[in-house]
């Protein structure tokens, strides 16, 4: 039986479902894939040290999550075209002595959005979060035809930097940055809201914005998947908003990473069903 050793590097990743998703899909392909969690907080080691050790211990690759998607880049030997354009990495594959960074987040979000909100208007979208995940989500939304993407982050410099990169890639006027204080006016005229920040995760509970800013005219998407129903989505649904949870993104990005790790084509329908089983009460 062909064997693979993979894992996830990040902070607060204990609740991650990635091990179960990857290992179960591998069994359907007759593969023995072991998937480990390497939490930088628990181990007390930065991402660079963990990658160095992983090479020595024979890992085939890693997924990378918050807050390491940009911090990992200086420790890699090569970037895929997508990862280089986005300035963020969520998948690392070891090829001999080389560590190659990829980004499957943006395609994962794009597939999830197309599947979950197929006819949602995308003229004006507000995105919360300008980190590694935000870079991927912004790229996906503009690729899908968003007219104007406004990036809001608690760090204004980071929002400005991401908006400038996106505008440079997709054209002037397609993306700009705004401050959290601008959210009332922005959301009043927006078609949709995407939370690409970690707020709502088990280790970062709460709402990423004041609840009173939501209204029924918005569709609301969240990339957080543990919990699948975040406080943001729960409140949005009570108002009658169309919503998209983070389950689809995590499955589709995992499927793309699985293909990079193993060379096998995963069954995304089967992986979506497995995720539903894992999160069932």
List the helices and strands and how they pair.
Layout: E1 3-10, H1 18-28, E2 32-39, H2 40-43, H3 47-56, E3 61-64, E4 78-79, H4 81-86, E5 91-95, E6 98-102, H5 105-116, E7 124-128, H6 132-143, E8 148-152, H7 156-170, E9 175-178, H8 183-189, E10 192-195, E11 219-222, H9 231-238, E12 242-244, H10 247-262, H11 268-279
Structure explained in plain terms:
With 281 residues, the chain is an alpha/beta fold. Helix content is 40%, strand content 20%. It has 11 helices and 12 strands. The strands form 2 sheets. A 6-stranded mixed sheet has the order 2-1-3-5-6-4, with helices on both faces. α6 links the parallel β7 and β8. α1 packs across α10 and α5 crosses α10. The protein is globular and about 55 Å long. The two termini are 34 Å apart. The model has no long low-confidence stretch (mean pLDDT 95).
């Amino acid at each position: 039986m062909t064997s693979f050793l993979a894992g996830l590097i990040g902070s607060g990743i204990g609740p991650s479902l990635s091990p179960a998703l990857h290992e179960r899909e591998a069994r359907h392909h007759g593969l023995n894939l072991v998937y480990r969690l390497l939490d930088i907080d628990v181990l007390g080691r930065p991402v660079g040290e963990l990658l160095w050790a992983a090479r020595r211990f024979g890992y085939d690759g890693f997924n990378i999550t918050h807050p390491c998607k940009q911090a990992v880049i200086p420790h890699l030997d090569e970037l895929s075209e997508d990862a280089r354009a986005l300035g963020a990495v969520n998948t690392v594959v070891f090829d001999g002595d080389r560590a190659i960074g990829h980004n499957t987040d943006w395609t994962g979000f794009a597939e999830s959005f197309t599947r979950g909100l197929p006819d949602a208007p995308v003229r004006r979208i507000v995105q919360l979060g300008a980190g590694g995940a935000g870079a991927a989500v912004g790229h996906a939304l503009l690729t899908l035809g968003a007219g104007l993407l406004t990036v809001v982050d608690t760090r204004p410099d980071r929002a400005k930097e991401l908006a400038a990169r996106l505008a440079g890639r997709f054209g002037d006027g397609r993306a700009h940055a705004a401050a959290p204080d601008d959210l009332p006016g922005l959301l009043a005229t927006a078609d949709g809201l995407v939370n690409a920040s970690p707020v709502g995760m088990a280790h970062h509970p709460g709402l990423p914005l004041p609840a009173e800013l939501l209204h029924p005219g918005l569709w609301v998407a969240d990339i957080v998947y543990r919990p699948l129903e975040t406080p943001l989505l729960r409140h949005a649904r009570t108002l009658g908003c169309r919503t998209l949870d983070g389950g689809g993104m995590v499955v589709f990005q995992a499927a793309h990473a699985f293909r990079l790790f193993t060379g096998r084509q995963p069954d995304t329908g089967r992986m979506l069903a497995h995720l539903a089983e894992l999160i069932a009460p």
